[in-house]
Structures are given as structure tokens and as C-alpha cells.
């Protein structure tokens, strides 16, 4: 469970989120307009940025967790793979997800390597394991990011705009994996793609004007969507089946 108490975030003097109070006990999709604070909230939950208030994971203050325990509890998958060694292979990159379990000054164990192989097979990218990250397509890079998070075996996985840079074919593959992972992990999805959020079927936290409101099954109807987004909606087309 993730609990936010009076969470407030600012960039310089600009208020992004104000006094957010919520308990996240299950899967969640975070929605809102571009620049509303969705990614800011995700980075705060992972303690990647400064914030006011308190964030706890399973009743433990995120700021008091060691880096290793934090990595075992939560992982963050960005929208795009940006910083990496251009010579690192897919297999080597995914193996880094096992670092929280690695004994100092020792090589990765056979168990670590087996977990990586199983993860690559699960995501059907084992044929890419010797390829460098720089040689991959956007869709393959996104699957590699997911593979590293799965190898990390954290209980909570946050996906930040996972289909933002993908074509429809790869978007469908990623969407289906995200939905399937709900059986094994607590999934938090940040997206502006309403079709993706509808397909994944999480409860929704909507961010607007620095405030956040939680919705259940009552979110995906035209009247609610029109009120929140200020535009006319037709029925959503589920394009990820």
C-alpha cells in the first residue's frame, strides 16, 4: 500500500501538486492534462524529487528506506530510454535490475542470470539479448525497460507514459503486458491515452489544477470525461484487444 499525506510538489516557485491525501491499495491509473503533474507525482512516490508532506510504502516512510529496500519495493519505468551506455547489451541492461540482490564485490549469481533469461523469454525478447540498446527500436527499448523492472522483482511498478513514443502495433503489445502484470505486481499507470487506461481497468486518480481526485468504476462515462477535460466525448474505442 502507498499512502500520501499532504503531498505538495513545486518546481521553483510553481505549485504542481497541493495537499494530496490518498491511500493506493490496488492498481491505479493517473490521468490529467499534459503538464498537470502526473509524472511529478510518480517521481515523488519513488523519492526521485523533493516534496513536502509524507509518502509511505507499507507503512514505511519512503525517505527512510535504504536504496536497496526501495528498489525491492518499487520500480519506475520512464516513457523513453534516454541515458545508457551505447555498448551495453539487452541482457546486461536487464541484469542490472538484479543489483539490489547482488552481494558486494561478487558476480551476479546463477539465480540472477536465470531470472533475467526467464524474463526475456516471458516478454518474447530473448532473441535480442546480445543486441546493444542503441540498435533497438522504440518498442524493443520499452520492452527492455519493462524486463529490467520485472527482473528487479519490486512489488510496485510505475509505468510513465509507456506508449507515448510507440506505433499502434507496439502500443498494443505493451498494453497487453501491462494488463497481464496486474496478476503479479501492483501496477500504477500514468498516461494521457484514455483508451489505454480504459483497457487496463484500474481505478483512476485525476489531477487538475494541483488537486487530485480518486474515481472508481464511474470514471469512463461521457459526462465525467466531458466535465474533466472540457471537450465532447464519444464512446471510447478499445483498440488494445
Structure description:
With about 240 residues, the chain is α/β, with parallel strands linked by helices. The chain has a single domain, classed as P-loop containing nucleotide triphosphate hydrolases (Rossmann fold, 3-Layer(aba) Sandwich). The protein contains 8 helices and 10 strands. The strands form 2 sheets. It has a 6-stranded mixed sheet with strand order 6-7-8-3-9-10, sandwiched between helices. Strands 2-1-4-5 form a 4-stranded antiparallel sheet, with helices on one face. Strand 9 and strand 10 form a beta hairpin. Helix 4 packs across helix 5. The model has no long low-confidence stretch (mean pLDDT about 90).
pLDDT averaged over residues: 91
Q: CATH superfamily membership, which one?
A: P-loop containing nucleotide triphosphate hydrolases
Order of helices and strands: EEEHEEHEHHHEHEHEEH
* Structural class by sheet pairing and helices: alpha/beta
Number of strands: 10
Low-confidence runs of at least 5 consecutive residues? none
What kind of sheet is the major sheet? 6 strands, mixed
Global outline: globular
Relative helix content:
25-40%
Using only CA atoms, what is the Rg? Answer: 18 Å
Strand content: 15-25%
- What is the level 1 CATH name? Alpha Beta
CATH architecture group name: 3-Layer(aba) Sandwich
Provide the number of structural domains: 1
Q: How many H/I helices? A: 8
- Distance between the terminal alpha carbons, to the nearest Å? 29 Å
Q: Taking strands numbered 1, 2, ... along the chain, how are they ordered across the largest sheet?
A: 6-7-8-3-9-10
